[in-house]
Amino acid sequence: MKVLHYEADIDPEYQGWILIFTTITCVWLLCLPCYCAGMSSPRARKFASWMSQRLPMFYSFMCLFNVALMYLVIAWMPDWTFPSYMAVLGKSVGWIAGHVLKWATSLAMIIAFCFVVAFKERIALMLGLDHKQIFNCKMRDCLSCFAANRFRPIELLIWKVEDLPSSDIFHANNVFIEAYLGYNETMRTRVHNNAGSDCILKESVQLNFDEDDEEEKLFLFVQNQKVMGAQELGRVEVGSDKMKQLLKDGQRKGGDIQWSAASFPTSFPLIPRGQIWVTAVPVEEEYHGYSELATC
Questions:
Q1: Can you tell me the distance from the alpha carbon of 32 to that of 37, in angstroms, rounded to the nearest whole number?
Q2: Which of helix, strand or coil describes residue 279?
Q3: Do 179 and 156 meet the contact criterion of CB atoms below 8 Å apart?
Q4: pLDDT lower than 70: segments of the chain
Q5: How many CB atoms neighbour CB 80 within 10 A?
Q6: What DSSP string runs through 227-257?
Q7: Has residue 294 been placed in a domain?
Q8: What is the domain range of residue 173?
Q9: How much is the pLDDT for 173?
Q10: Strands 175-181 and 218-225
């Protein structure tokens, strides 16, 4: 009875803000399963999975808890009663519903922007632009005054591909590789005519690699050259961590890379089918000073 008859000595203005934040908290508690499912903590995701299997029980308990919480908070506010709170809440909902059409365009733009930002990788993959570097500028470039000394030259070695799907049952595949990495322009190997499903490539391309950029990825596309254009046979995505590991392995070999299984211990599975053997080694650039021109 002491708890129910307690009245807080708070100004009426602050009482309204307390009720607003309590109402928002109650709404957030109803969305708790979705919130926990999006967290990175394994315990939170496990708890969300447990709640999703018991949604009727969860919402029944949460509705009773919210009603009890709001009743206690309103009882502690000396200038509010539960009927007056419900009347103000109804007027607020009616005012929002009456003005929602005025905000429809702005709300649609905000929702569309949030959707694009949240699913930008999926949208780029659907449009076939996940490997394209549309803007050759990032926030790191602005913070480093566009300095290029963070890039390290590397040589990407491509040994062979195996188990490729056939693009045409009447013709063998004419295989070549396209490589995309960060700010580098598209690099292509020569075309190996009539290679079929297996091809010994023995090709290399040189690229600039930023070891500190965790988002930088290497995209390799196995293509089949046709009379008009090319057809993708398979693709693989190599993350920054794997690229660093390939460079470490190549550096331990001292640059002595042979076209054999000993130098290419790791193969990458292609999507939708096939295997590709690649490795990487650092490139040591030689700089020569300019000689002075003598005049007679």
A1: 8
A2: strand
A3: yes
A4: 1-7, 121, 124-125, 127-149, 253-255, 285-296
A5: 18
A6: SSSEEEEEEEEE-HHHHHHHHHHHHHTTT--
A7: no
A8: 151-282
A9: 87
A10: antiparallel
